[in-house]
Amino acid sequence: MLDKFKNNYSDKKTELLKLIECEWFWVCGDDRILCNLCPHNRTCTKLREKITKYDGATSQKFYVKYNCSVRYEPNGEVEFVKYNKPWELEIKDEILGNNFVEADRSKLLAPREDGTYEVIKDSFTYQKLYRSMKNSRNRSIQKFFNYAISNEWQYFITLTFSPEHVNRYDDAEVIEKWSIFQKWLKKHNPDVKILVVPEYHKKENEDGKKALHFHGFLNECPNIRLEPAKDEKTGEFLYSSVDKSPLLHLIDWKYGFSTVAVIPVDNNNRRIANYMTKYMFKQSDRVGYGKKLYYHTRNLNMSESINYLFPDKDFQKIIVEYGLEEVKTVRGMTVYRGKLKREDGK
Question: Checking phi first, is residue 293 left (phi over 0); if not, alpha (psi -120 to 50) or beta?
Fold first, then answer.
């Protein structure tokens, strides 16, 4: 995909290409090496040797610069995200390897039995705690969205908890019941795919606590029982507020009320995923430190995402060549989407 673009720069980078002796081109800063397009930057032995010889050091940090993220989805769609300002990923060079520096994601706090937390890291500051929680939330939401659009879903489910079966104001007890049900589903449907988000009801009890329920995706399961959903009070059949289609009830959900909406075959999961991720942003402050924003089975597909650095003029060529359409511009980035053609032209 990128071969035609690297040739445009080869003449300008002749001297540097001779230094690196790599088929890809590199941009050299004053005391940093910035990789433009090379997909081998993590394992490039030649680059590592040149850096070591250049400064005589056994270890040196340098950075890879990007301004575009490309995600290839299983259905053949491709999403380009062009950022207004490039960002850099730090790389650490050592004699025996050239690997990305792993971020320190060890816990800053540990829970006590009374529900409070104690500091377990000497370097703890409230600034670090805030940054850690913010970064963790963003990673979780991005990963959830990726799971949501990279798998085929048949059902959108809502599961509530009845006070007759569980203390729905006790998060730990609610999550335990959900875990039991998920294990039951996997036992009777080994290939089941699940992706759900916990959500708090708006109404509080006398202690100021809110009850949990779940929304999420479910794929086709041959061994689950469904029946038309009815209002618990009136006995009337229930219908979707979106397309007025009949809602179903999950018979094997024993802990409360449930609704199951059938997702149309030609439906784009993005709309639902966008709705749920927006909610997750608002909900994340209530979930608590170290708690999960979503739950999923381990067999979910994940779309491939690759970062690049493109000059603006070359990015415009890509837009034209692949027929990309601008979808939205928000928070310093522009999103384009299109569908890759197969070799047979379809």
Answer: alpha
> And the tokens for 228?
């038309």
Give 101's DSSP letter: P
Q: How far is CA 95 from CA 19, 51, 64, 145, 337, in A?
A: 19, 10, 19, 38, 41
pLDDT classification of 21: cutoffs 50, 70, 90: very low
Q: Name residue 89's amino acid.
A: L
Mean pLDDT of the chain: 74
Q: How far apart are CA 141 and CA 158, in angstroms?
A: 19
Question: Considering the entire predicted model, what is its pTM?
Answer: 0.68
Q: How far apart are the first and last CA of the chain?
A: 18
How many C-beta atoms lie closer than 10 Å to residue 279's C-beta? 13
State both tokens at 311: 């000059």
What is the phi-psi region of residue 75: left when phi exceeds 0, alpha when psi lies from -120 to 50, beta otherwise?
Answer: alpha
Share of residues in the chain with pLDDT > 90 (%): 25
Tell me which H or E stretch contains 130: helix 126-150
Do 202 and 279 meet the contact criterion of CB atoms below 8 Å apart?
Answer: no
Average pLDDT value for residue range 38-61: 49
Q: What is the average per-residue pLDDT within 288-314?
A: 82
Query: CB-based contacts of 50: which residues, under 8 Å, 6+ apart?
Result: 19, 20
- Residue ranges covered by each domain of the chain: 3-102+311-339, 121-296
Residue 195 has pLDDT above 80, yes or no: yes
Give 337-345's long-range contacts (Cβ < 8 A, gap of 24+).
337/77, 337/78, 337/79, 337/80, 338/77, 338/78, 338/80, 339/76, 339/77, 339/78, 340/72, 340/76, 340/77, 340/78, 342/76
Give the integer Cα–Cα distance in Å for 38 and 21: 13
Q: What are the CA-CA distances from residue 320 to residues 23, 264, 305, 314, 323 (Å)?
A: 26, 31, 21, 10, 5
Please give the Cα distance from 18 to 22 (Å, whole number).
8
Distances (CA, A) of 243 to 140, 183, 262, 289: 30, 32, 11, 37
Q: pLDDT value at position 268?
A: 63
Query: What are the tokens at 270?
Result: 């993005």
Instruction: Give the closest residue to 239 by CA, choosing from 218, 217, 259, 210.
Output: 259
